[in-house]
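Saturday, quiet lab. Running sequence design on the structure tokens for the scaffold JK sent over.
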């Protein structure tokens, strides 16, 4: 689907050069096939003369793509590619665009409310927010980093408040946690809430939860320390993102 901007996506012999680090393209910019009769797509494949197992799609509307050639994956090198294609009817594509627009509006509102934010598990954001931790660990799931702690462990970040009151803390979780996932959230060593994620949603989706911070904990402060600590015999949920929000 293109060879542009591959810096960091092709391995070299530098330190950590085997780890992909280049810019990712947004999924909503990936090619989409628009066809009301999905079953007819196979009959619209046209062989490319002189190139076995290569095909074009004739008479099919494509979004974010022009003159694409379908070819065996084993022969594709140093290029972006797509193996599984979104195929939508015209009506479905209209609904898809509407949903993207709604998501973008939600994101804009969230950005306007955000005073400070940290991405747990990512080195620079954690360093920027003065990470303190013991017996915590990190990982990556669905292309997002997270941090969690178990036993007598914990982890915390310093988040700016802008000197404001009427703030809340938004935490991003995975919606299908199981096992013992009860934990406390503190602001400057004061308990704000106890959360238990085990079986809370049972949905394979990310969930954002807001917790109101009492004004008494914000009085006269430009920053506060937010700590996640498991309850006895538990571990925290995987914390994917933390935001300090205005109402």
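Result came back. Writing it out in full:
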């Amino acid at each position: 689907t293109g060879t542009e901007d591959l810096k960091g996506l092709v391995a070299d012999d530098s330190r950590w050069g085997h780890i992909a680090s280049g810019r990712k393209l947004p999924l909503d910019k990936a090619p989409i096939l628009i066809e009301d009769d999905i079953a007819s797509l196979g009959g619209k494949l046209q062989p490319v003369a002189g190139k076995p197992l290569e095909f074009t799609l004739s008479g099919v509307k494509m979004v974010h793509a022009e003159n694409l050639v379908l070819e065996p994956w084993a022969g594709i090198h140093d290029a972006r590619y797509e193996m599984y294609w979104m195929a939508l009817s015209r009506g479905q594509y209209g609904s898809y665009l509407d949903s993207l627009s709604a998501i973008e509006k939600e994101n804009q509102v969230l950005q306007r409310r955000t005073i400070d934010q940290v991405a747990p598990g990512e080195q620079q954001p954690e360093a920027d927010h003065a990470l303190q931790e013991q017996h915590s660990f990190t990982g990556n799931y669905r292309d997002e980093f997270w941090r969690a702690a178990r036993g007598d462990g914990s982890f915390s970040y310093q988040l700016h408040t802008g000197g404001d009151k009427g703030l809340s803390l938004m935490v991003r979780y995975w919606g299908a946690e199981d096992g013992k996932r009860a934990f406390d959230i503190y602001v400057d060593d004061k308990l704000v809430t106890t959360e238990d994620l085990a079986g809370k949603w049972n949905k394979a989706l990310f969930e954002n939860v807001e917790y109101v911070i009492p004004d008494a904990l914000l009085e006269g402060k430009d920053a506060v320390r937010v700590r996640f600590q498991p309850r006895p015999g538990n571990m925290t949920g995987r914390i994917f993102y933390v935001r300090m929000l205005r109402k």
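Notes for JK: The first helix runs from residue 90 to 113. The radius of gyration is 23 Å. Ask whether to fix the surface positions before the next round.
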